[in-house]
What does this fold into?
Amino acid sequence: MSSVITYPRVPTGVTVQYFFWLHPEWWSVALCWVAWAVMLLHSWQYAGHGVHHRMSFAQELIYWMWMAAAMMLPFAIDAVRLTAARSLWERRHRAMAGFLTGFFAPWLLLGIAAAGLRELSWTHSYVAPALGFLAAALWQRTSIHRRAFNACYRTQPLAPLGWQADRDCVRFGGTIGAACVRSCWPLMLACAFTGHSLIAMMGGMAVGAAERWPYRPRTRAMLAATLALASYYAVLAV
It folds into this structure.
């Protein structure tokens, strides 16, 4: 004799609701996709002459921030999720917004410098990204880079309530963002010097993934990918 046990079917709306409850960082992931869409349209618009294209200081800064969101935010999603997990239920999204505010603040400061450099004529040649990627390859071999990379995974306690909680979330994001800037600044500047080329951005993402996601960082793959980008733009410069 056999018995059949049936379970009530969970409505689709409830399943979706549980998904958003379990993954409060969903809108941060959505922001990454929006940033990639913006940069993809930008790359298509200026395909073939992005290095030589000149934009205003404000436009350069805006696209820099979109590039930072597309390339760097995916590597900080775990920290965003951790911020939500360590915050009270009713203020999880506020905590994540505070984290992202702090995270992007150091990138904004570097973006101001990058936008200022793009006002100079020498950054609109293929020599600039070639030298930038070469500098990034050399930077990856330094102890400063290794310490900065390790700092990208630091954690710190968060206050549960009040302005102290907001302060801690912003400070936590700023700590992670500053570490990421110290770790990746030559690579990001080189990508900016390409005119935010899709090839350069995808190559930079591959370098970051090789460094962060495996159990052991693939240092040879990182070096090879960065040198390949430097060689590509060096050939274009010649």
